[in-house]
C-alpha cells in the first residue's frame, strides 16, 4: 500500500525550505532549499518543489505552510485599502485618521446597549468611502460581551457594497476595543494578499497533480485550513517563529525546550513546554501596531546570516573591533553577490580604501550599492536625483561620490528603505565561508572582504572572523537569557557575556591567567538550534551558557518540518458577568449573564452557568474540528476557570470560562 506523506514549506526571508515527512514514523525522507523570491514568494516555492523527488510529491496528502507574507505586507504598508468604523467612545488611530470614523453605539461591561447604534452615520460613511477602499473593518465597544452592533453594521455594509467586512469580535475575545479595531483593520488589509498567495499554492499543487489537504501555521503554533486563513490572515503573522519552535521539538524529540532560530534576517528565541508553545499574554505587535492576535512569546534580534557587518565609526582611522556592528540591516553577502554579478570581483580588487575616508552605514570599505528591480515611484526631486546616480551594477558608494559632484548620503537611506537601492556587504555568512564552517557560494569574495576589514584593524582575517563568530554567539546567548529573565537589561547581559569585559568584573581565571571562564549562565532545559548555519556556533555558544545545546538532524529545514508539527486548535472564551445583591448578611450572587451567538443567557446558579458555558464552548470546538475532518474522539480539551475579584468581601465581578480544544493535523 502506498504511503501517505506530508509536505512542509517555509517561505522565509532568505530561503524557502521544503521537507517531505512520514509523520507516522517521524522520519524526514528528503528536504531542500531555494532562494525566496520577492515580492511574490510563489517563485521560490516552485523552485524548491522542483528539487524534490516527483514520486514522493505524488504521495503527499497533507501540505502545511508558513510564510512571512502577512508580516511583510504590514511592514511594507502595501496591503489593501481599508476603512475602519469604530462604534462607541473610541479614539481614532493617528495614522488612520483619513480612513476611520467613530459613530455612536456600543455596549457596557454588562453587555447592555450603551447607546443606540447610529446606522444613518454608518450608511453615510460607507457610501462616501465605497469608491476609495476595497474592504471595511468594524470594532464596537464591549463587542466581546455583545457583538450585536458589529453584526448589524457588517450586514448593512455588505448590503451597500458587497465588500468584505471584518469584525473585531471575530478575531479577538480580550478587552481592548482599540486593539480589536487595529486587528480587524490589519486583517481586512491582508485579505486580497492572502487569497492571491494561497490560490497560487493551490494552483501549483494542482499543476503537479497533487491532491492534498492544505493547511497553514498560525502565530500561536496551531494550523488552520486555507479556507480559514483566507478569512483570518492576520493570525499568520510570525508563523515562521512558531514553525521554528515546533520544528525544534519535533526534530530533537524534546517536548520541552528552547528554540533559537537563526535566519537570514533575524535570530528568534521561543519556548515550548509539554508540546505547547509558550504564548504571550500581550497581543502580537508588528510594524508598530499593537494587535489582539495571540502569538507565541519570542525575543527577536535583527541579526542573521545576511546581516550587514560594518564599522560604526566616523572615519576609517577611527575603526576598532569594538565599534563593529552586526545588523540590523539585511544585505546580499559578498560570496553570493560575486556569483550574481561576475564583474564584482574586479570591482572589489580595484577598490582603494583611504585611511581618512569618512564613514556611515553605506560608505564602508566592504559595502556596495546598486539599483534594485523595483520601479521608482513617488520620489522627491532630491531622491530621484540621487537614484539616477546609482548604477545597475554594484559600486562602492565612496567611488560614486568621487565621480559625482555630490551624493546626499541621507537620501541613500531613504532609497534603501523604499527597496529601490540594494546593498551588498560583508555578513556572518561570509565570515563562515572564511572559517570554512559553511560554504555555499564564492569563498574567495568572502576572504577578500574579511581581509580588507582585518587590515584596517591591523589583525589577521582569521582572528577577525573568529572574534566575529564569538560576537554573534554572544548575541544569541544574550537574547536567550533575556527571554528567560528580563530583569537583566540587554546592556548588563552584554557586559557579562563579553569575555574581555568579564576579566576583572565577572570571571575568575587560573594562576596562568589563561582567560578560561568559570562563570556562565545555566539553562535547565535543552536549547535546540534551527537554521542553516547554526551548527557552526555550538562551541562559541557553549562558552557563554551552560546547557544541553542540540543541533538535530535536518536542523537546516527545521521550520519546514515545524509546519507539520502544529495541531489543529480552537480557543473559546466566555465572560460571565456576575450580578450581586446586598442584604443584612452581606453581598450574595444574584445572577450570571453572558452572550453567545445564540443570544443572551442568564442563570441563577453559578455552576449551571459555568456548565452551560463549557458545553457551548466544546460544541463550538467540535463543530470547528468536524469542518477540519477531525472526529470528536480525537479532540483533547483544556479548561480554565478564572474569577475576577475586585473586593474580597464581594462575589467575583466576572468569571472567565476558557476552553481550548486540540487535535492532530491528520490526513
Question: Could you explain the architecture of this structure?
Answer:
It holds the Pfam family Hydantoinase_A. Residues 180-312 form the Hydantoinase A/oxoprolinase domain. One of its GO terms (biological process) is glutathione metabolic process. This is Hydantoinase/oxoprolinase family protein. With 667 residues, this protein is α/β, with parallel strands linked by helices. It folds into four domains: 5-75 and 194-303, 2-Layer Sandwich (Nucleotidyltransferase, domain 5); 80-189, Rossmann fold; 307-426, no CATH class; 567-663. Helices cover 35% and strands 25% of the residues. Residues 500-513 have low confidence and may be disordered.
List the helices and strands and how they pair.
Blueprint: E1 5-11, E2 15-22, E3 27-35, H1 42-50, H2 54-59, E4 60-67, H3 69-76, E5 82-87, E6 100-103, H4 119-129, E7 135-140, H5 148-161, E8 165-167, H6 177-207, E9 213-217, E10 222-225, H7 226-231, H8 239-252, E11 257-262, E12 267-273, E13 276-277, E14 285-286, E15 289-290, E16 298-301, E17 307-311, E18 324-330, E19 332-333, H9 334-340, H10 344-349, E20 368-371, H11 381-389, E21 395-396, H12 397-403, H13 409-417, E22 421-425, H14 428-435, H15 443-456, H16 461-484, H17 490-497, H18 499-505, E23 521-522, E24 527-530, H19 538-542, E25 545-546, E26 549-550, H20 558-565, E27 567-583, E28 586-596, E29 599-603, H21 606-627, E30 636-644, E31 654-663
Helix pairs in contact: 3-6, 4-5, 8-20, 11-13, 14-15, 14-16, 15-16, 16-17
